[in-house]
Specification:
By secondary structure, this protein is mainly alpha-helical. The chain has 18 helices and 4 strands. The protein has helices at about 5-15, 45-50, 70-85, 105-120, 125-135, 140-160, 170-185, 190-200, 205-215, 240-260, 265-325, 335-345, 350-355, 355-370, 375-390, 395-405, 405-425, 450-470; strands spanning about 25-30, 30-35, 55-60, 65. Strands 1-2-4-3 form a 4-stranded antiparallel β-sheet. Helix 5 crosses helix 8. The protein is globular and about 75 Å long.
Amino acid sequence: MAETKEQRIARQVYEQVGGMGNVDSVIHCMTRVRMDIKDNAKVNLAGLKKIDGVMGVVEDDTLQVVVGPGTVNKVANQMVEMAGVRLGDKIPAGKSTTPVSGRSEAEKKANANKAELKKKNNTPFKRVLKDIANIFVPLIPAFVGAGIIGGIASIFGNMLIAEQISGANWENSIVVLNIIKNGLFLYLNVYVGINAAKVFGATEGLGGVVAGIIYLPGMNVEAPLTNIFTGAPMVAGQGGIIGVILAVYLLSVVEKNLRKVIPDSIDIIVTPTISLLAIGLVTIFLIMPIAGAVSTSLVGAITWVLNVGGAFAGFVLGALFLPMVMFGLHQILTPIHIEMIASQGMTLLLPILAMAGAGQVGASIALWVKCRKNKQLTNMIKGSLPVGILGIGEPLIYAVTLPLGRPFITACIGGGIGGAVIGLFGGIGATAIGPSGVALIPLIANGQWWGYVVGLLAAYAGGFAATYFFGVPKSAMEPTELVTYDEEEEFASESIVG
């Protein structure tokens, strides 16, 4: 049977990272295959970038290979299938490896120096970002699907209120759609708790139970427990996602230490019982009040900044979000979005930050117009632009604007212009996270979708104008033929975006 495109990419990725035996585990997000690498000195970054189908490579705590939406699921699954494991599982030592050839001693030394520098930069803050990413990345497809279904239900609900539609069938349809949506959002704490337990090394089932405690199941609402700090009645869900992550982290610490001292013969009974009792009490009486206060303060501060800062705050946030994505810092915003949705019914941050991707779209269209003779670049834009319009901007970042330099900066300016428009309008929020770009329109709350669309158009126009007049390098306008790839040979020529 002929090798598929995804099988070829998976095989070649393994070849360029030092073989399967040099990969500890494989997961993926919406556009990137993420690998934990054992020895970074064995990775051939130049070879990775030359693989037909690879749009870019990001070096972080994990090695991230950008292959685009849709393709990423297939490539990652091919890689774990080759290793005989599941996504996220450790690849057993001793798996066959394919040595990387064709590198000079200077290149090997440079890679070794990079690996040493990366090891020094493995700071606690970066490890926190990595943990947050690993907790929430597996939930992204659920956020996207449930969010869009909830958005459709919201649209139908608004039409029902406006009497544009009527009848029991429509009402029942809205109820059914909301039931599907709430399958995620009503029990989100539990899903996060299970993922957090996996990341922190605790028992996943116990992580789910600890997260479920935050719902205060079984509490008598007529005689509720009280906050030990304020004396106010406790509320189910207080502390939210931030509380869940903290509680499960403490669970992992307690569970690991108990297993060191509890005899194996009674471990299955004693360890989970003591762990749940201890962390359950801490969660109810300490974590929920403290995390609840932190969450409320954080959401309040962000809302205040957006209300007071208006267009200026919108410009700054819209312009800076792409660099945050590039460095992986955007992951830390996910719990904040969720807390804002839980407390206010919507996140005011997401529509502003989504403008960053729209700036990329405008910048890429400008490059397409001015660089028509560069077939390599325009072909890359044609492949990345549709998903960019739908809100997945990483292919445009890593395959188009970032490698060229100036277009990345002008795209950020476009994102800032769109963010300023959203900030100027004020009150434009999204009811769920996951989608961006055009796909976010159904999720805009309170019928404010028109303001979001105006912001998108402003970001498109701003990114286009800034790039067209100031952001196109002369080298990008030079004629370049398409790079051809022979499955048995290397690239015939060097890619402009390599």
